[in-house]
Specification:
Elements: E1 3-5, H1 10-18, E2 22-26, E3 36-40, E4 45-49, E5 52-58, H2 64-72, E6 74-80, E7 88-99, H3 105-109, E8 118-132, H4 148-168
Antiparallel strand pairs: 1-8, 2-3, 2-6, 4-5, 5-8, 6-7, 7-8
């Protein structure tokens, strides 16, 4: 049932674009470190090419993915079909975090809708693409995006978001460097 692919073709791209949520997993090098798994949505995923993807990383209470990517670059992105035929798609790769102050941020940001809570763009050079059956994934109906993130960011404002990132996103759970500004 599982299959590996050499590149992101049109059918895989169509499947990824149709999913309202995806999951990002990363881990530090230390065996004692915390593995991280985060759900993502809000139209933040983009396919940059047949072997490259990116997602807009929004301000949150943790900074694990950015810290892990800075330390070792390992990442996996997973999509699940919650409606229609069952399917799971995984993109393994090497990632880099392009933070707000990085020279490439502005150009990469043109791929996304503007979001005041954006703190980085995670760019992934995909090294392995595979699918599996997804028979164990339940059928669910998509209702809508949640409005809380945009309202929270608007209430904080640009300076409040900067302060929040300084306070909450400077270090990971394992004390690895996180968001730099």
């Amino acid at each position: 049932m599982g299959k590996a692919y050499p590149k992101i073709d049109d059918a895989l791209a169509q499947f990824m674009r149709a999913q309202p949520v995806f999951f990002v997993a990363s881990a530090p090098l230390s065996a004692e470190g915390h593995v991280n798994l985060s759900p993502k949505g809000l139209d933040t995923f983009r396919i940059l090419g047949p072997g490259s993807v990116a997602y807009l990383d929004l301000t949150g209470s943790g900074v694990e993915t950015i810290a892990h990517v800075k330390e070792n670059g390992r990442i996996v992105i997973m999509f699940c079909a919650f409606d229609g035929p069952p399917r799971i798609l995984r993109l393994h790769g090497r990632a880099r975090a392009i933070e707000l102050n990085h020279p490439d941020f502005t150009e990469l940001a043109t791929h996304f809708l503007p979001d005041p809570s954006a703190r980085a763009i995670i760019v992934v050079d995909v090294t392995r693409i595979s699918t599996s059956c997804g028979y164990g994934v339940p059928l669910m109906k998509y209702e809508s995006e949640r409005p809380q993130m945009a309202a929270w960011a608007q209430k904080k404002g640009p300076e409040g978001l900067k302060e929040y990132r300084r306070e909450k996103n400077a270090r990971s759970l394992d004390n690895l460097p996180g968001f730099s500004r």
